[in-house]
Amino acid sequence: MDLFDLIEMIWSQRVIIVVVFLLLFAAGAVASILMLDRSYEAKARLLVLLDDEDLTPGAAGSGDGFILEQVMQSEAEILNSEAVRRRALETIGPAAILPAGGTEARALRALRQGFAVQRAPNASVLIPVFEGDDPGRSEMILNAIVDAYIAYRQVVLTGDGASGISERRIQADTAHAIALASLDTFLQEHDITDYEADRSAAITRVSTLQNQLLTAQSEAQAASSAASAMAARVSGMPETIELYVESSAENQLAELRLERERLLARYLETAPAVIAINREISELEEFIAGGGVAGLGNTRTGVNEVRSALVEEQMRQEVRASSQTSLAAALRRQLRAAQQEIQRLRDLAPEFRRLAQDVAATETAATGLATQQAEAEARQSLVPGSADAVRIVERAYAPPEGSSLKKLGIAASFVFAAGTAILLGLLRGYWINHVSPNAPARPLPRGQSAGRAAHNGPQPMPSHVAGVPVLIRTPQQREALARR
Predict the structure, then answer these.
(1) ∠ CA 130-131-132 to the nearest 5 degrees?
(2) What is the reported pTM?
(3) Nearest Cα to 114, choosing from 133, 99, 96, 91?
(4) Which of 58, 258, 43, 7 minimizes the C-alpha distance to 142?
C-alpha cells in the first residue's frame, strides 16, 4: 500500500469519517463549553535579599558558602511547604477556600492543587501563584499564604521562643536537684564529707603511718640495742671508787722543803742548818718512796660517776625503746583503721560513681538548656526585621478578565475527533478491501501485463511486494496457491 491507496481508502469512507468527526467534535466542544470554567490566576512577587553581613537568609541554604541557587531553592521549599499552607488555612478558614463547604482535608488539597511557586531566571525573586475560580478569593488566599510564609520563616530562622526550652530546663533542674539530694544523702549516711578528698586523705594517711611505723620500729630497735650494750659495760664496773688518800708524811715533807728554802735565803748550802734539813728531806723521801706510809692517813671513796652515767644512759635508752615500741603498736592500730577506711571507701565507690555521674549528667543537661534558653531569648530580643530578608515587592493580584480553557478544549476536541474519525475510516477501509471475504481482486504489480503472466504460466506467490511483506492474500491468490 502506498499513499494513493491510503487516500483512496479515506475517500471511500468519507461518509463514516465525517459522521464520526461531527459526533466526537460536537461532544467535545459541548463538554468544553459547559465544564471548563474561567479561572483567575493571582500572582505575587517576593524579593529575597542576600546580605553578606546578615547570615539569616543563608540559614535556609546548606554549607558555609550560600550561592543564589541554594538560597532561592531553600526559600521556595519553605514557601511551598505544608506548614505554610496549614498556617494560611488556620488564618482564613476552610470556608474561604471552599464556599460550597468542605472539610479541612479538602481545603488543604485545594490549596495544594491551586498553589505553585515560580522563579524568575537569574534573579532573587520568587513568584507565588494561586489559581482559583474567583479573582477576589484567589488574591485573598495567596495573600494569606504569603503572610503565613513570612511569619513561618521568622519562626524557622529565629526559633519559636524560649518557652519550650524553659520547660525543659525546669525539668533538667529538677532532675539535677534530685540527683544532688541523693548524693548528699549517700554521703551523710556513710559519714563522708567529700568522697574524693576523704579517699585521698585516707591514702595519704596510710602512707604517712607506714613511714612513721617503720621509723618507730627502727628507733625502738636501736634504743634496745644501745641499752643492751650499756648494760654489758655497766655489769663489769664497780659501783664506788676511791677518790683520794690523805697522810701527814706528805705534809711534813712539804713543810721541810719550805723550811729549806727559807734557810737558803739566809745561809749557804754548806751551812750546818742547811745540811741537816737536806738530810731530813732525803730520809723522808726515801721513807715515802719505800711505801712506809701505805695504808696510813685518811682515804676518801665515792660513787663511780662513769658507771652512773652509763646506767642513766642505759635507762634512757630502755625508756626510749619502750616508748617507740608503744608508738609502733599504736601506729599499727591506726594503720589498720586507715586501711579499713580505704577498703570501705572502695566498696562504696560504685554507688558513689553512679550518683556522681547522675549529678554530672543532669548538670550538663541543665547547663546546655540554659545556654539554649539564653540564645533563644537573645534571638527573640533582636530588633524587628532582623531575620526579615524577604521583601514583598507585589501583593497578590488577579486580572479581572481571567483566563479560559474553552478555546483550548474546543481545539483539542477538533484534533481528537479528526484523528479518531480518520483512524476508524482507515481501519474500516482496510477491512473491506483486504480482509473481508468479499474483498475485490488486487491489481497486478506494476510493469507486468496479463499476457506476460499467462505466457509465463503460474507464477509463485510473492512474499514481498515493493519491499513490504504480504500479510493478507485475496481469495484468487489463495486458490492459486492451493492449486500449486
Answers:
(1) 120
(2) 0.40
(3) 133
(4) 43
Nearest to 182 by CA among 364, 351, 365, 342: 351
Distance in angstroms (rounded) separating the CA atoms of residues 285 and 262? 19
**Do 74 and 60 form a contact (C-beta atoms < 8 A)?**
yes
The C-alpha atoms of residue 63 and residue 59 are separated, in whole angstroms, by: 9
Instruction: Tell me the H-state helices in 236-271.
Output: 248-266
C-alpha cell at position 454: 499467462
Contact 6, 403 (CB under 8 A): no
3-state class (DSSP) for residue 244:
strand
Quick: pLDDT tens for 101-150: 778 888 888 888 888 888 877 778 888 988 877 788 888 888 999 888 88
Q: What pLDDT is stored for residue 442 in this prediction? A: 55
Task: Compute the distance between CA of residue 17 and CA of residue 27 in angstroms, rounded to an integer.
Answer: 15
C-alpha cell at 413: 476536541
CB-based contacts of 377, cutoff 8 Å, min separation 6: 162
Question: Which 3 state secondary structure label does DSSP give 19?
Answer: helix
Q: Is the pLDDT of residue 373 over 60?
A: yes
3-state helix, strand, coil in the chain (%, to 5): 65, 10, 20
**Phi, psi (5° rounding) for residue 396?**
-60, 135
